[in-house]
């Protein structure tokens, strides 16, 4: 089964929360024999202009998820098709405070977007969606229930 969400590496607010929740989900599933063997976690970037392979790798390392999830990046045209399929509509927004010139360059804009966490079963059916605020234990329990169904 697949746990799918949409984040970006420069995000100052909801993405770190969702990423932290996914770390908690992974940790909870790691306590269940074989559960992680049957679960793939996917993160799709909503910021193709700044999220490249290097940034995605650094972000994944920061959360200890380098081997815990696949962080998918690509060109805007390719990612827009994925966003559309999952009802995600990222929109670049300017603003935000910065502490240095380097921060100003990095954070020239934020991306307003939805960050649902979808659970997709083995046959590709979207079974559940979680929106913030959500409890990572609820996600982990639902994953385990779906795995128990053969999902």
Structure description:
With 151 residues, the protein is α/β, with parallel strands linked by helices. The protein is 37% helix and 21% strand. It has five helices and seven strands. It has a five-stranded mixed β-sheet with strand order 3-2-1-6-7, sandwiched between helices. A two-stranded antiparallel sheet has the order 4-5. α1 (14-30) packs across α5 (136-148). The longest helix is centred in the N-terminal third of the chain and has 17 residues, at 14-30. The chain is globular, with a radius of gyration of 16 Å. It starts with a strand and ends with a helix. 28% of the residues are buried. The mean pLDDT is 89.
Spatial extent as radius of gyration: 16 Å
Helix content: 25-40%
Q: Helical segment tally?
A: 5
Structural class: alpha/beta
According to DSSP, the number of beta strands is 7
Return the string of H and E elements.
Answer: EHEHEHEHEEEH
């Amino acid at each position: 089964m697949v746990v799918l969400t949409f984040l970006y590496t420069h995000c100052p607010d909801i993405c770190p929360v969702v990423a932290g929740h996914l770390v908690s989900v992974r940790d909870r599933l790691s306590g269940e024999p074989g559960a992680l063997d049957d679960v793939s976690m996917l993160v799709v970037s909503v910021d193709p202009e700044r999220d490249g392979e290097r940034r995605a790798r650094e972000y994944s390392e920061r959360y200890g998820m380098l081997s815990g999830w696949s962080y998918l990046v690509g060109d805007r045209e390719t990612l827009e098709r994925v966003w559309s399929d999952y009802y995600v509509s990222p929109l670049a927004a300017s603003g935000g405070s910065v502490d240095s010139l380097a921060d100003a360059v990095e954070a020239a804009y934020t991306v307003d977007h939805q960050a649902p966490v979808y659970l997709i079963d083995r046959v590709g059916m979207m079974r559940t969606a979680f929106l913030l605020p959500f409890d990572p234990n609820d996600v982990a329990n639902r994953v385990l229930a779906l795995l128990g169904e053969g999902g």
